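Re-running PilZ domain-containing protein to confirm reproducibility after the cluster update. Everything else is unchanged from the original entry.
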Amino acid sequence: MTGQAGPRHVVVLPALCWNPRRQDFYAVTADVTAEGIRLRSSARLAAGEDLTCSIRHIGQLEVRITQVAGQDFVVGVRGGRATLNGLARQFVTLARAQNFRPEPIRGHHRIVPAQKTVEITLECGLSFSGHVLNVSASGIGLLIDRAVGIGETIRVGSRAARVVRHFEHGIGAAFLEPLEPSAVHAAMTL
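Result of re-run:
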């Protein structure tokens, strides 16, 4: 998926990545462009590193990290033109199915905290666990297995938030009272 610049297709899919020199680690796709697949993870990675990534709805891919910037890293898929064209079609189809609008410019830096499991409480009092994809001073991305309506107020750990978007198996929620940017770090707890 390398080559000339083109459109960016936002698609959020969980992934498990590994290689013989490192333990398995979780990542989540962020978008796909002609430059490659951008993922996010709390793992410390290096450009040039080869990985095997199993991405939900896509399958297992052999990739090489081409760029690393903070929690984000871009991978190029190893394979012939037919393989790359087929993957591009799969990603575009999944991006459309997730019904994303163009991603707005974000005012706050997002991180993946070390503590990824969080308790979520609905307005009705029902509580269940969720998986934190990322968090910023203004909001949070969560993988959950329950239906929660857009506009619904929820409690994420000790923080009140309003659901602002849906994606496959998850939600985006904006904190009712934003965090101080200095409170957003890998060791944070919600």
